[in-house]
Structures are given as C-alpha cells and as structure tokens.
Amino acid sequence: MKRKKDQMALHLMMLPGMILLVIFSFIPMFGIVMAFQNYMPARGILKSPWVGMDKIGRASCRERVLRLV
C-alpha cells in the first residue's frame, strides 16, 4: 500500500508534462491533415474532401517557389 501512495505522487508530478505534450504535439496534427484536404469550415476536418498531394504538387512546381528553394 505504501508503494502505491509513493507512485501516486510521481504520477501527479508527471501529469502537467503529459498535458503539455498532448497540447503541443498531438493537437497541431490537425493542421497537417488540413494541408492534404480541401478544407471547408462548414464541413469540418473529418468531412472535408481529401485531395492528397495535389495541392502540394501544384505549389512546388511554381516558379516563385522554385526560386525560393
């Protein structure tokens, strides 16, 4: 029983770090998903049509982008 109480304190100390990990690592993944969609705010992220690499392929072939790279 004493060991469980000691571990509870460690888990509580770890909790703020885990919350920050979720906020700053996993939530921004929705932005990455939106780059491959024809995002429409009315439909949301899950129901917007998927376009795949079409947008990225078009953007990378433009002359202005090639000069920047």
Q: How big is the Rg?
A: 21 Å
Structural class: mainly alpha
Helix share of residues?
A: 55-70%
Number of strands: 0
- Helix-strand string: HHHH
Which strand-content bin applies to the residues? Answer: under 5%
How far is the N terminus from the C terminus? 61 Å
Q: What does this protein look like?
A:
This protein has 4 helices and no strands. The protein has 69 residues and is an all-alpha fold. The radius of gyration is 21 Å and the shape is elongated. It has helices spanning 2-26, 29-34, 54-60, 63-68. The N and C termini lie far apart (61 Å).
What are the salient characteristics of this protein?
64% helix; 69 residues; mainly alpha
Indicate the topology:
Layout: H1 2-26, H2 29-34, H3 54-60, H4 63-68
Give a nutshell description of this structure.
The chain has 69 residues and is mainly alpha-helical. The chain is built from four helices and no strands.
